[in-house]
Amino acid sequence: MTDSNPQVGAPPVCPRHPDRVAYVRCQRCGRPACPECQVPSAVGIHCVDCARRSSSGRRGVRTALGGRPVADALVAKLLVGACVIVYVGQLVYPAITGWFDFVPALAATQPWRFLSTALLHGSLAHLGLNMWALWVLGNTLEPLLGRWRFICLTALSALGGSTAIYWLASPSSTSWISGTVGASGAIFGLFAAVFVIQRRFGRDTSTIVGLLVINVLISVLGTNISWQGHLGGFLTGLLLAAIYAWAPRERRTAVGVWGTVGVAVLLVALAAARILLV
User: Fold this and answer.
1) What is the pTM for the complete model shown?
2) Residue 272: which domain range?
3) Distance CA 112, CA 99 (A)
4) Which of 86, 210, 196 shows the shortest CA–CA distance to 141?
């Protein structure tokens, strides 16, 4: 038989590297740790195993609204790129507009139009203004909300804009067969989110309110502008941003997920109800 216990007076060795003498001990478990297995911490040296257990049990860093911090507004950049590519496609093959714009008369049989319309634009100026707004608002909101909240906010605001157009268009008027294009509904939802978040944290909202007033005036007084889509996007963004901003700290993820699902179900239900009423 052999004795499994170390000899009395033998130098301590690293459990992970038994061939290495280690006089430094982990501050948590007390085991020896060789230089390769030492992890510096605020309260001394930890061994690799204790450092891993500590890291796995630690909650991830979150933003003020509970999102995962991101280095840049990647989603916003991808959306801008997608809209530019689609606009080039519209110029090369104009039929694309007729396939994907939002036409209330076709909404029941071609539901993809509720969202696809947000990628289309009617002119270079229309595209430029919307993409500038998406770039600025995206760089503000995406790092704060995190990727998935920003995606949901943008997509559901676009859906809310189309739903409002659907409800406010009359089957007996030309608006029922007219096509609408643009990301303005989504962008108005982002404007609403900035306003809500600034209010939530007690910041000055005069700048965003001024921009909203200017855009509302343009929507009402301008020609060939869908104020209905702007209104629907704004109200949707307002509701969803309020859910994200005022969710209890300890339940932000759950409230955010279920709140997003609830808003999506509400919009789908409104669209379905309109179909039944036509």
Assistant:
1) 0.76
2) 74-277
3) 10
4) 196
Residue 217 and residue 89 share a domain:
yes
> Rounded to whole angstroms, how far apart are CA atoms 84 and 112?
20
Asked if residue 169 belongs to a domain, the reply is yes
- How many whole angstroms separate alpha carbon 178 and alpha carbon 189? 23
Could you give phi then psi for residue 72, rounded to 5 degrees? -150, 175
Phi, psi of 252 (to 5 degrees): -60, -45
d(CA 273, CA 87): 32
pLDDT digits (tens, 9 = 90+) for 117-163: 999 999 999 999 999 999 999 999 999 999 999 999 999 999 999 99
For residue 150, the cross-strand partners are: none
Same domain, residue pair 21 and 98? no
φ/ψ of residue 32, rounded to 5? -65, 150
**pLDDT tens readout for residues 162-205:** 999 999 999 999 989 999 999 999 999 999 999 999 999 888 88
Lookup result for tokens 């992890």: 39
SS3 of 186, please? helix
